[in-house]
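Subject: two folds for Thursday's group meeting

Dear M.,

Sorry for the delay on this. The cluster queue was jammed most of the week, so I only got both jobs back this morning. I'm pasting them in the order they finished. Each block is the input sequence followed by the predicted structure tokens. Could you check whether the formatting survives your parser before we put anything on slides? The first protein is the one we discussed after the seminar.
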Amino acid sequence: MVQRSLSQFGYFAAAMMCGVALPAVAQVQLEEIVVTARKREERLQEIPIAITAFTADQLQRAGFKDLHELTLNVAGVQYHSLGLAIPGRVNPSIRFRGMDVNTQSPTFQLATLFIDGIFVQANVDSIPFDDIERVEVVKGPQAAYFGRATFGGAVNYIMKTPSTKEFSGEVKASGATYDEYDVSANIDGPIIQDKIGVRLGGRLYNKGAMYRASDGGGLGEESSKSIQATIYVTPTDNLSAKIRVFRASDSDGPAAGGYIAGRNNDTCTGKTITTKAGETARPVRFICGQVPKQGQALNALGGLQIIDSNTTARSPQAFLSTGDPNFLLTNLIQKPYNPSIHVPKLNGIGLERRLFRMSGQIEYEFDGGITATAQGGYNTQEANWVRDYTFTPRDNAYSRDPQDMNDHSLEARIASPQNQKLRWLGGVNLYKQHLITSGSGGDALYLCNDSVVGLAFGACVQSPNILLNYSSFDNALGLTDNVRTLGFYGSAAYDFTQELTLNLEGRYQKDRYVRGLIVKTTVDSKKFLPRVILQYKPTPATNIYASFAKGVIQPEINQAVIDNDATARAQFTAQGVFAFTPLEQLDSYELGWKQQFLDNRVSINTAAYYGVWTGKKARQIVNILYNCGTGTGAPNGSTGCRPALGEAGPGQPARLANGQPSFRAANATISGDSKIWGFELEGNAALTESWTAGWTFDYARNRFTNFFANASLPVAGFTNMKGNSHARFPKFSGSVNSAYTGKLTDTWDWFVRGDVSYFGKTFVEVDNLATCDSYLLANARAGVEKEAFRLEFFVKNLFNDKNWAACSRFSEFDLPLDLSNLTQYQGVIVAPQNKRQFGLKTVIKF
């Protein structure tokens, strides 16, 4: 099926490419797009960086619902809800050019979304596309203009500006199978003619459950509400100001995800492999090769239903053992938080999130053409999320992860006229972030652990009436971060000739990162981040450039090293874990060619890149013998530190009653090195006045050059990842689309559009043992329209592709909890594709 789909994809792509050779048609040209990725207006085809842009009309005609659907049609970038190993709309991440991220912390992401050039730390899934004027996806390090968290690239949403001349409005409504609906309305127009305009809008979105859990509950339910208001003031021709306010709330049920246990789907045991580093390893209890698909993989109970989890707050396991139907609610879901945290309350498993954003910009153009701009933004997010930690039908482990965050930024810049031989720009910005959240796993409740003498493997399931021995962990808010970043940036472009231009850009950035809520640790870093671009335009239709840019990600703090005593710190150091990791740096080289053909009927943009990545963060599992009652590792009363049961007392190394030492596993961060390289191609064609086509192709390669990771050591049998590839980014991906519009009557047109996206095979983890198979998604839409009305029928996932949308390694927590061997049994967290959907959409303008 996959080979046949790939063949169809290839034929479709060839047809699109051949189509550009059709005879010229007078007055047919591609739409010209103007972008602002360098804080000034430039034509997309003339800007000397790799950037993909979509206008509001293109977003509507493609039917993109969110950033995930959009990035399937962009070379070199991906966005998915399975950000690290967590399905759902909680911590998705943006990835560029084969790079992966090993943390779910918003502080250390590879890329960030901006709204009107203003940093947005919080989740972006609630932003309605109908309020967007343009989306710009900018690839490669973008620190020179955008600042922190643009190591791999940036996504910038340019929001619509209210009109000061005429009133207009728009209502959009769509409905689809699986109880999905999306309704939005906007009104736009002047309050004072030619002086003040306002835009008001709102959206209601809902998606029902596509999957059902064993207990009958729905999986994958999503709901969002949002309102926005924008006011635009232009008292004179050279002065303008815009203020935007946005408020949204999300309410999701249990996420659609599942767990494929390595021990139940073992294809490794008995094999001997030679790693890329030249070592011999004998992996066990894991998947070597393709992750089994739906209908083939075995779940934790030996059945075939993988997309499953517990969806009720009334835990059967806890009820059988305690007789309390509200045990899970009382001991985890509704247990009081630290007073510093402000998040929505939950009554069950799922996500509740509230967002508020406010931004403003003022711009003044002096008589000589110099432009001064000032802008600022304020964002808050309060989110509460409770999940079945195992994503299986077994009833054993649950967690809650609060996120209480806010950030604000201020920026001022001044720019010369852009029609001169020498052009310059300079600015300063200040960014502050405050984030309170739990560490890995959040607050946790385990209903079965190994401190019960004689408790056998799987005993919680085999003997549900045993005396419950639960463990409750209140996370110390270990990923609480405060950030203050001050940046001074500037650029200069000089035209040596009409064809040759040199661009010098750079930012001097001072970053202060503070971790901890009570005991605080501070890291300061200073760095100059340059970008140099040499641009050659031999003809108005040809743009060739070469560039060098540097990106950085701030050092990580291993708080567990700092919070514990000298005895524990020495053990961390012996295992290669230190209080601070080095600064992550990326030296990126890029060569690009943008070409227009046939009087701008066809455009092709290509980019080849190479990057050296040093200090790349890696997760490390360390086993520490803590002293009881000191630091955060072994508090008095925990396993190994209960004198009443014959275990160790305060100040003594943790040990069990039988005298055996009681080690505890701890998560830590170390660093390594890798390199990336690849090639990107994007093209568009106006084949005739009525027929358009587009295509993308992405080849992304990467290799670790010095990298050790032991999270999968118990199953992989090795830790040296030299020569292996990054996880969760395909080597090959691409897309094609084509649309045709014809006359139905004098006032009505008919249209049809098809989109096909290919997402290649990915590695599940850096050990490169397991792979997630490729998939092919096809969407189709057809309908009728006239000037103020559009009606379309659409199908998503036309061929009902059932391959996994994403896969990530994860430890198995169905088993009795063993604090010294948390990663002994491992498997793969999977996220399914959205099932095939049929729907109708209407757009009414007035």
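Second protein, same layout:
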Amino acid sequence: MLSLFPLPSFRSVLNTKVPKGFSTKGSKVFRKMQNGEWSFELYGDHTIKTTFRPLGYTRGEQVTDAVIKKPVSEILVAVNEEEQLIDFGNVARVLMKETKYSYQFGQEERDVLAEYFSEYEYKGFKFRLQKGEQVFGGGERALPLNRRGYGFALYNVPAFGYGENTENLNFSVPFILSSKGYGIFFDNGSKGYLDIGKKDPKVLEAGFTSGELTFYIINGKNTGEVLRHYTELVGRQPLPPRWVFGNLMSRFGYRSEEQLKAITAMMKEENFPLDAVILDLFWFGDSIRNTLGNLDWVNSERWPDPDRMISDLKGEGIKTILITEPYVLMGTKNYSESKNYHAVDSEGNPFTLTNFYFGFGGLLDLFRKRAQNWFWTKYKKQVEKGIAGWWGDLGEPETHPAEMHHNLKDLGFDRLFSADEVHNLFGHYWNKMLFKKYQSDYPEVRLFNLNRSGFAGSQRYSIFPWSGDVGRNWSGLRAQLPVMLGMSLSGVPYIHSDAGGFTMGEKDPELYTRWLQFASFTPVFRPHGTALGDIDAHSAHVESEPVFYPDPYKSIVRRYIQLRYDLLPYNYTLAYQQSKEGKPLTRPMFYDNAADPELFKAEDQFMWGESILVAPVLHKDATERKLYLPEGYWYRFFTNEKIKGGQWITENVGIDDIPLYVKEGAFIPAKAGMRNTETFTSDSLEVTYYPCNGASSYAMYDDDGKTNSSFDKRKFELLHFEAGNSNEYCTLHMSSNGGMFADRPDLRKIDLMIPGLSARPSYIAINDQWIEVTSLENGSAQTQSTKAFWDTARAILHIQFSFTGATQVIKIPR
């Protein structure tokens, strides 16, 4: 029997009979079984939502807000009882095989067999894994990037001093991505687990202790496409303030205004670019313990005038960022007044923690509006002083006993929820609270929220998570690649590390240098470590700022920090690409191409955006580095040497540099010499084009770097670059979309640089006007008045011109 009915209501079709066991409500198709009821719903052309509600299940509330995309409301659906098929208008189909289901998009079957299970305290789903299938994602894991063969908890938890092969960390995301061209998102924030072929090599299993039992199957041709559809479902990161891509000075911890200003002065004196300082818990107390919850400057001797200090730093272009935690401890100035906003026991009384490292006290119940409002008053007091951003620590929450309960009445639920039922959502709702409060009170401000925990979709609340309390050792450094790439593949784009390592281990200049070289090509650059002085004799005192390291290490680090600043136009454009299309800033090598199996093996390298390949040095005393170049041609970043891809190569690696390559056809915009992002303007740009035989294009994003929602407000500009090649010419186009924003330059001076040419061309044409190419032997004379010149020393062609927004066409004879 085949029945056709349009959703949301089949009753609109006269005399249409729905097959026995099936029904509809709104846009859903239901199928009743002996042990419960399945429902299916289409979310666009690439995603199907599936939910199972077991008979007698009393804890099936949906308490996440992860999914923001709306389901398809009008579509013709066919249900074929004999063939056991639900056909969503030939867009997608669900094939029913008794209690198992597989999914098709178009004519392509995903061959993902799903079934429900219930074992012990867990309920969930099992899926069949195919031979050779690789599985990625799951959030923050210091495991191999392919997580098949591993099992881990879906339970946010800190791991002090961790390194490689650490399964469970601070930020779980119940989303996995398969090499077979699909993803699965489990929209459940309760305590759970993922077993990806550990118990049974052919089975992926996801179990949860509470909440709605829902998953979304997401289709795509490659990793990038699946991730794009997933981020359409759960949201993408808003554009960050431009200063996020600067150098953020941080340590545990600065203990006084005098110390802080002395170190910032040293950084400037030694020509280190700097954009922000981040203050750990000593801004609200003089000790590590029994101070959380003060949330104000309590020592007037160490911090005599915070308002003036913040203002003075701001005058130098340096932002001030403060740490906060969601715990309020006994004896702090806010304990009594906050007690009514704490999480509670099963009887509804404020819950007192007695086994918490930092002291006795309570946890703010940030699911409650009154708790959020109270907490926000403490934030806003500091914002009014000039605080530019926030650091949210311990938000897993770090200590969260199962017997603690939370009040979710403001979310529409009447009963108390145990800690395990909402554990993974606590940090998420904290992120949401801060974001929404800023939107309400400071609508033009782009939020910076440095945090370490959340849930799927937290990225849309402008979070910048770091990878937790990593060990200060080579294992800790190596752990950062799978952590960073795994989070990127989970839709959380701004993951980064305590560069240099946070805890344990002695001062190691080589490790520090290698870590900061790597960190220069990550979403946030923030050297951090433990330097407590006399406050903790058991903790190693290792400064995180490069001024405290000897040469040559200090000079090498300075050069890499400066390189990061020089690449600001490229880096900032990555933020636009993420916000607009869901592209991660750091990408695994197989992101766009699953056809080359070697790309899956190259786990210890990554792409910084579309064009720059980064191969960090991850072992002590390394003199060589093996890496894989994908198909095509690649240019060595520092020498412009052109190398054929599709092969593994071995490079010599002195301490000065790590291997960096640029893909042929790339355009890399840069702005040389900045020491602070406040000084950035695109009135002059260096743009390097790396020639290829085919066509290529690139769009550089530009705005004022601070206006919130500038893209939605049309306060931005895109500078378009295109390249095409014929037998006679390499032809380059530069144009603008004509966008406007505050302080947009009316005229830009462009220095277009082209390496990789076999010889100096005699002439080039700009808008059909032929110009002689002069020779510049030393690479540093009369460049301002020269329209086109050849840098003999570096074998680079420079073409300098003024750009008003009108299309420029440049022809270079081949």
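Two things I noticed about the second structure. Residues 603 and 623 are 20 Å apart (CA to CA). Confidence is low (pLDDT under 50) at residues 1-16, 779-784.

Cheers,
T.
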